[in-house]
Structure prediction request, 326 residues.
Amino acid sequence: MKFKKIVLNNFFDGEIIKEFSGNSGKVYLVKNNVTSPAYIAYKTCKYLCEESKDLFDEEVLKWNSINSRYIVPIYYIHNIIGEYYACMRACDGTLADLMSQKEVCETSAYIYALQIIKGLMDMNASSIEHHQDFNPQNILFEDMSRLFRGFPPKEIHPSHRYRMMISDFAMSNYYVKNNIDGRAGGKFPFKAPEQYKDSQLSDFEPDRFALGVLLCMLFTGKHPCGFKQNQVFKKNPKKLKTSWKTWAHSGSKTVNFHNNEVSNLISSLLSTEPEERPNYNECFGVIRKQFEIFNPNEYSTAMFHIDYFDKQYSAYPRDKLRTRVN
Prediction:
């Protein structure tokens, strides 16, 4: 059964103002009638069948296991006459949106990179080993200036207004369940060599490869294949002369950035050998150190926020998911 918007508005106690469709489901952005916060979001299954319901249940349980400011939080499950919706924090857009609007400056790139890598660290510290669909479209942001008047103050960089949060865990740990068929996932411009079906690689670290692509785009403005950002953010990304599979395995991976430490980190993440890619703690350490050298004041502000939220979230572990029934 598919409900019309007017029916869902009644159950959500608000007004659906926008819809988003992804690979794993549909998301509704809702303006609340009387409750706080002013906006909330609901995600549901893409296909309404028993198998998709089981996968949806699995996704939300994995998702709720991660306790981090840099993961989109899920609040509860809403059962509306047999259809299930995950109530989650409303966000203001995706990292792909930010990167497409204008060129990301170096300070912004460091600020975003630290938050995103911290999210991956927190994800790995929970029950999730592999996201398997890690890319800028699945990194949402919250604009804190819309919530707090006068933030950020003029003396700090305007990019501190954004909080990056990783989302969409439908494919996560698929490899853990099935190390043959479970290699799948990932959008072609971010897909690691070992994610292709006939890969002979025994190790599996696709999120690290995707992180290398993302960092290259953040710091250089281009995909390591040489394409501009808007060419890979399309629903059907621009095709290479060979194929994305060939590029991932043996194509040239160009990283033109003036900081050798950051460039070397990105190149290492783009290695065709999964075991040679640095772990997230190593990535965080390199980005942190180079940011401190590049801009000590903005570095201190960024780390203040990360440390603050780390303490806040460690003090309040995630609650068991509750289900609201209509």
Observations:
- The chain has a mean pLDDT of 91.
- The longest strand covers residues 14-21.
